[in-house]
Give the backbone structure.
Amino acid sequence: MFRLALINPNTDEHHTEAMGGAARAALPDGCDVTAVNPNRGPTSIESAADSVVAAAEVAALVQALPDYDAYLIACFGDPGLDAARELTAAPVVGIGEAAYIAASLVAKRFGVITTLPRSIPALEEGIDAIGLRSRCAGIVPLNIPVAEQGSGHPDTTSAIVALGKRLAADNGADALILACGGTADVARAVEDEVGVPVCDGVSFGAGLAHSLWRSGLRTSKTSAYGAPEPIPYVGMQG
Amino acid sequence: MFRLALINPNTDEHHTEAMGGAARAALPDGCDVTAVNPNRGPTSIESAADSVVAAAEVAALVQALPDYDAYLIACFGDPGLDAARELTAAPVVGIGEAAYIAASLVAKRFGVITTLPRSIPALEEGIDAIGLRSRCAGIVPLNIPVAEQGSGHPDTTSAIVALGKRLAADNGADALILACGGTADVARAVEDEVGVPVCDGVSFGAGLAHSLWRSGLRTSKTSAYGAPEPIPYVGMQG
Amino acid sequence: MFRLALINPNTDEHHTEAMGGAARAALPDGCDVTAVNPNRGPTSIESAADSVVAAAEVAALVQALPDYDAYLIACFGDPGLDAARELTAAPVVGIGEAAYIAASLVAKRFGVITTLPRSIPALEEGIDAIGLRSRCAGIVPLNIPVAEQGSGHPDTTSAIVALGKRLAADNGADALILACGGTADVARAVEDEVGVPVCDGVSFGAGLAHSLWRSGLRTSKTSAYGAPEPIPYVGMQG
Amino acid sequence: MFRLALINPNTDEHHTEAMGGAARAALPDGCDVTAVNPNRGPTSIESAADSVVAAAEVAALVQALPDYDAYLIACFGDPGLDAARELTAAPVVGIGEAAYIAASLVAKRFGVITTLPRSIPALEEGIDAIGLRSRCAGIVPLNIPVAEQGSGHPDTTSAIVALGKRLAADNGADALILACGGTADVARAVEDEVGVPVCDGVSFGAGLAHSLWRSGLRTSKTSAYGAPEPIPYVGMQG
Amino acid sequence: MFRLALINPNTDEHHTEAMGGAARAALPDGCDVTAVNPNRGPTSIESAADSVVAAAEVAALVQALPDYDAYLIACFGDPGLDAARELTAAPVVGIGEAAYIAASLVAKRFGVITTLPRSIPALEEGIDAIGLRSRCAGIVPLNIPVAEQGSGHPDTTSAIVALGKRLAADNGADALILACGGTADVARAVEDEVGVPVCDGVSFGAGLAHSLWRSGLRTSKTSAYGAPEPIPYVGMQG
Amino acid sequence: MFRLALINPNTDEHHTEAMGGAARAALPDGCDVTAVNPNRGPTSIESAADSVVAAAEVAALVQALPDYDAYLIACFGDPGLDAARELTAAPVVGIGEAAYIAASLVAKRFGVITTLPRSIPALEEGIDAIGLRSRCAGIVPLNIPVAEQGSGHPDTTSAIVALGKRLAADNGADALILACGGTADVARAVEDEVGVPVCDGVSFGAGLAHSLWRSGLRTSKTSAYGAPEPIPYVGMQG
């Protein structure tokens, strides 16, 4: 039986639970998903300053939860991904990379909808790092704060749909990625109204993690992802 | 129940069956794999001239087998992949791209072992196209004809192991991809002796196809992968 | 005397003849051009599915016409180009690459006009592969079906001229490439009205092939373009 | 008077002091350097797992030390650099980027000597991110643990000199960067014996920070480096 | 005492003096700046034809002024930079590269305002060569001749401000570079009204040159920047 | 009748004549080649310092010889190419770009043999600028001064052959480019003994220039290559 640890890097437990459910739904019967989040740090991650705090917490959680078959880091910026891979021999997948890989398999050009303009450079850097810059048709900001979003807010959904239509018509996007906190309901609405696949990193990322495990693939321990050298640490509690 | 069509682009039925078995083993219980190959064309694919014949056959087979949940094109060069995606709304995965994606998830730098030096530029172009050139530590040729390879030939296995060790030690590869026709037995031997993951595109590609389907993702039909314009064809039989 | 085989990958004989004439006009006196097309396959090529059929036919035609001094593959997507180079020691040129090379020699930034939006990603991939992505100012679709185009249709010509003016004014294109089936008459009209060179791959490609031959350059046979390994083929007639 | 805060991301106070001295020596008379380090975290940084802990500490220190004219993050991997830039309007420089910029101004191709092979991919990613991959002649590992290095250990110095000579002779490096913990004495010995500039990020980075400040340049606060949104944090002490 | 030779590649002495003053103001007390220009060549540089004449003059001036601690080539296109580095062991900095480096340190995405559209490709090539293409948010032309510009012409300033606002709002630029001949007064006005740093290559370039010198870094003389081979020259006077 | 002006940027008249002959031999009967060189400047070009002097002379010669159908700049570094294109509406080709384009048409990976290691970075920059970095298998130095080379020196020829064999065997080069001053005799010997095409920029470049002219293509005059603005020049004689 496959046991996945989903780590939400922020401290919003409601979000942790929702993503745990999405991951569970994406896996074959009999798989087990444990969804956790740190007990310290930001309730959502909207800056590099938030991200460095969250990355350290992700690494600590991987060490605290050592016996899983795979790990899914469930924040679009994939904070702490390389560190997590050093700290376990199980496969580790980030939902950001999962969303981009999904898009690259079902479409030629993906568009990304994010929350705020300030996030665009970091998203572009992530897409560069994964090698898919030439596949990105554009990134546009929603300009609605996370706290006001959701499928219960028709305005948010219709704003996302409008941006999706623009990315499809003007930028040639034939797939969309919601990096703006939209829920599964929103994704479905966008898919229906824009007519292109909406690539969700949580469910596809859970599938990737399972597929790696099922194919017998584990994180390489011989070089960059080897266990860290035993450096002395000071001042750490626990 | 998930039904996968595995299309071997060459006409070697023995190889078709073996890959069908590997795909089946990689999928959850209850999934179905139909493994087919064209009845015309090369028995193996070792040149662009072989590949153009095979690509046309792959496209024809996708049209001839319309009702599957996903398709896996089971030749390392992924011949006919874009055409296949135009011809179905189901997800289509190539084993070449699957192997590279697997390697990018479990290691920082992959090495590739191919059969002949002549294939290296085409492999590099494929890696460029998928955006992973900076992750490739090197490509080395085995220089043993396909006909003489296999786990029954200890020399082949030991030659592959030796090349894998060289890629790890000299090029910093922390994962390997066998684009040289090696069997599952060879992969296991290499993994054991070199100590790095060997990424097999057939089993992980089957997993990718299943994960896309399970996440509700279908090939986008709005732009590049839309159904082809109804151009008149002449001289085609059947 | 230089003997060029121009291979039109589609089955439109009228188009074959027109391109044969353009190639002939671009070569020095005394050169000979044989213009052929397959007797099976699509009458025009507007998708990857069309292209894989055409590529296999191109390869077969090169083998069927072995004694020419050079070959020109006369379809903008250059289908079967690598295969053709394996199958002969004579130089082989594609009209797509020829058009891009011409533009790179007479201008800093070229714009491309294509027929349908769906072709844009494949054109971008071709430009990437030839290394000229940074020289491309933009690709815009004409959105008029091939069947309705031509110099006899003033609307098509004026639509192409309008797109050319937009590429020059808004995108900074100082050369244009018509990948939308326009004839020589259209090209002249665009050149006159937009005021920038229009780079035609058929006439310049014929010149490239002749220049290679005249300089004593033949396709390298030592590595990627070496004659294919003698793989057994099954089910092929003739 | 220019006041620089040098932040050593690791907890080795001896190293903090030494780097503070180097920065002071590189600045004009009358400048002030405060050198600090976190009181928790690794004593040296040799993995991504170490780095995520250190990055969070760097961000906290910038917030705790708000009134400086510029900040220098003094660890080769530049941990927390983007976060630090969000948290202040003063200029922030990393010693890794400083070393690469210095090399790009005095030479065509730099070579990098690092401690362990495992660090090479992360160094390559950093060089990619800064846009200087084509200027990098190679990265080679010293394979001597940090604890055993130093100018007091003649073997370390001679090993670094030998690697430097190899990078110059075989890879064409005409500048060197020591990312392997070497001291100023080692740098001088390498410069003398290899005959190429050795680019030190601490002294040049201090100069960069001063030059930005002196030119009136401050970190942009309008987009990616704007002050973080006021997200609620939980569980943080202090 | 640091002695900088600022070389204005054009023959406009008024501009030479103004840039000398800006460099002097950017350096610590006690530094000396000698500002010179050739006595032949174009009074401003607005084409490659102007630039090749100026580059030869820059090289001649470096040879004619051999005893400086560093050189600053004070024209945005950095004409003759590589030649100058061959002809001296002192550090040589160009104001174009200096402006781009400054922008990369204080912002994520810079916008460039140039004089004429014809200069955009050369600017893009310069940004490519320095590795910062992905950091460039856009380049827009002012379309006002140099002769009519200046802080004494309110129209020019307001046109530059308007373009800067457009680059910030539409392209996401969070820093600006004036490659359009604007003076220090204009830069200040743009900074105030657009709200982003305006990166001036003269003052920051002087700082870079000083920082290299202060860190003990000299131009590498072992490879590409080694003293030229003693080739015979004919027909040169003086 | 096609009239080509071949401009040798250095002042070696013997070399000018030899290249004029090679260009003439590569063109169809009835074409005319005028081969010229400046009367001031270096007798060969082996540094950036030589190159800036030569580039200014090339620009002056294009202006002094205005009535040709095309221009060929006959030095591997293509000095003054952009300036020349501004100064004429006729096509202008450089022999460096011609050699790379030829290689890209007959082979997958070219190797370059140059004279001295110091030239390698500039060659790599030229290959980058033309977009063919991924096609370059390697650049190796001959380390024999130009003055001692030639087909009359068996040692030089055999050294070039040996380097060519190494580039083919170890780097996978299937075409070679001699950027080391070798004559036509040497090229033939290398082609015979290494067994791969040797791409000569003079003869193929003449063919390129002729093909552009024959296809009616002229240098674009609307943007970057438009005639320079009429800037005042001072101190120029003649």
Summary: Chain F has two domains: 3-94+203-225, 96-201. Chain F touches chain E through 50 residues (CB under 8 Å). The beta strands of chain F are 3-7, 32-36, 41-42, 70-73, 92-94, 110-114, 136-141, 175-179, 233-234. The first helix of chain F runs from residue 13 to 26.
